[in-house]
Design brief:
By secondary structure, this protein is mainly alpha-helical. The chain has helices at residues 2-15, 29-50, 85-92, 124-129, 134-151, 153-158, 165-201, 204-216, 227-239, 245-258, 264-274, 282-287, 333-336, 349-358, and strands spanning 21-25, 65-68, 99-106, 111-118, 367-370. The chain has three domains: 2-74 and 351-370, 3-Layer(aba) Sandwich (Rossmann fold), CATH 3.40.50; 85-201 and 318-347, Sec1/Munc18 (SM) protein, domain 3a (Syntaxin Binding Protein 1, Chain A, domain 2, Alpha-Beta Complex), CATH 3.90.830; 203-292, Serine Threonine Protein Phosphatase 5, Tetratricopeptide repeat. The protein is 48% helix and 8% strand. α2 links the parallel β1 and β2. One of its GO terms (biological process) is vesicle-mediated transport.
């Protein structure tokens, strides 16, 4: 509820000891929330002052800026598949919170053992890889693993290299750290392999190509895509097997949001091809897009900055490095190369809004500024 959102934001501001300048788009529901939050902050400040416990003393010289947005400002971005490592893991892998359970080879006989790990701040590899494009994440984990096996003394013993007593002693002392790091590298390499396998099984390259072309309005070569050119091939893809229902739903929603001149007959054709029914609630869900400002018969105005700053093709993923054989099974070069940067051309409009806000260039005719009593202006 709006009251719950206001209470939550108030708690964050008080915890951080911030009295922010609040910005929100004019005419949006976020603006209503922004005004109520401002009143809640003023009321809290009054309580602190009259209660004789004025510990809430945020800086007035350089207040933070809190930008509130509503889902209707950008209904498109959450529907698109992303190719950062963290996004792919959360999209494709069944996690329980941040817990990932998998089968790992253990012991000399390589027996399978069920292991559960936490993908969070306690895992330095996860922290390093999670925001990288999957292609860069694969390269990074392979290169880091190669460096690790070259530099670690225990790795030399694992390869059967001849070592003297001092080297053996050093290697034994490093074994606990070696075993822990080897386990993390093995897990992340296995996790990237699993993401790639599921990517292929779910025909996500075809799905995401449609998503990107529709969202950006151009194909990778810069040719504009039009509704009539998209509809036929999209119907064909939806009619084929192998595309999961959730991906079919996302494709139809992306079509409705991005394409100009969408008609009811277009939607009916896509619904039939995707084999949706009234009973499963999907058709009603498509109709409910209107509740966040999406309408069938005219395309919503695309926010400025939605297109990537460049439509040039990026290079493919680099080839995998030479690795110590027998330690872990690694994804092959050909598999890694399936992740083309052309599948990541779209940039969320909020990225450009945030850049303008950080540079104090946010359009004041579009975004209203709400300043608390005694507060300074915000950019």
């Amino acid at each position: 509820t709006q009251g719950g959102i206001v209470t939550g934001l108030l708690t964050v501001c008080v915890t951080l000891c911030e009295r922010p300048t609040i910005r929100a788009k004019k005419g949006s529901k976020a603006l209503e929330t922004a005004k109520k939050l401002n009143l809640a902050l003023e009321h809290f400040e009054q309580q602190c002052g009259t209660g004789g416990n004025p510990w809430f003393k945020p800086s007035r010289d350089a207040p933070a800026t809190l930008l509130l947005v509503d889902r209707s400002d950008d209904p498109l971005s959450p529907l698109l598949h992303e190719y950062t490592y963290q996004a792919m893991v959360n999209d494709l892998i069944r996690l329980h919170g941040d817990r990932y359970t998998y089968q790992a080879a253990s012991g000399a006989n390589k027996d399978k053992q069920t292991k559960t790990v936490l993908l969070n701040e306690a895992d330095p590899l996860w922290v390093k890889l999670r925001h990288l494009h999957i292609a860069d994440a694969i390269n990074t984990v392979l290169e880091d693993f190669e460096r690790f096996t070259k530099e670690n003394k225990a790795a030399h013993m694992a390869k059967g290299a001849e070592v003297d007593l001092k080297q053996m002693s050093d290697a034994i002392r490093s074994l606990p750290q070696y075993t822990e790091l080897l386990g993390k590298y093995s897990m992340h390499i296995e996790l990237t392999r699993k993401c790639m396998r599921l990517h292929e099984e779910r025909k996500l390259e075809d799905v995401v190509t449609f998503e990107q072309n529709m969202a950006v309005g151009q194909d990778p070569q810069g040719k504009a895509t039009k509704k009539d050119e998209v509809l036929g091939p999209l119907v064909q893809l939806l009619s084929q097997g192998g595309v999961e229902e959730s991906d079919r739903i996302r494709l139809v929603m992306v079509f409705i949001i991005t394409q100009e001149g969408v008609t009811e007959s277009d939607i009916d054709e896509l619904v039939r091809a995707a084999k949706f029914s009234d009973e499963d609630g999907v058709v009603q869900g498509l109709a409910n897009l209107r509740l966040i400002g999406v309408h069938y018969k005219s395309a919503p105005e695309k926010p400025s900055g939605m297109l990537s700053s460049t439509l040039n093709k990026f290079p493919f993923i680099k080839g995998s490095a030479e690795l110590v054989s027998g330690l872990v099974q690694l994804p092959g070069k050909s598999a890694a190369q399936t992740f083309d940067y052309d599948l990541s051309r779209y940039r969320p409009p909020l990225q450009f809004v945030m850049q303008d806000a950080l540079n104090s260039k946010l359009d004041s005719t579009l975004y209203e500024t709400i300043v608390g009593k005694g507060g300074g202006g915000g950019g």
